[in-house]
Design a protein that fits this description.
Length: 70
């Protein structure tokens, strides 16, 4: 199972800067959580690198993540 969050940020926007700060705090928290009901946070996975077949099986296509999963 996979969970994703998409955030749009603009470099010259004060609200975006606050959102980026909050996102950084959320990432720091999620990267430390370990529980069977929480999907692990691996960092650099982009939605385009997650492939799902018609049966719902997921394949990770980001070879940079191989070092984290092996």
């Amino acid at each position: 199972m996979c969970a994703m969050k998409e955030v749009t940020l603009f470099s010259d926007d004060a609200k975006s800067k606050e959102s980026a700060k909050q996102l950084g705090q959320e990432i720091a928290l999620l990267s430390r959580l370990r529980h069977p009901n929480i999907v692990p946070y691996y960092g650099d996975i982009k939605g385009a690198n997650i492939l799902v077949d018609p049966n719902g099986r997921i394949e990770l296509a980001d070879f940079g993540m191989a070092k984290h999963t092996l």
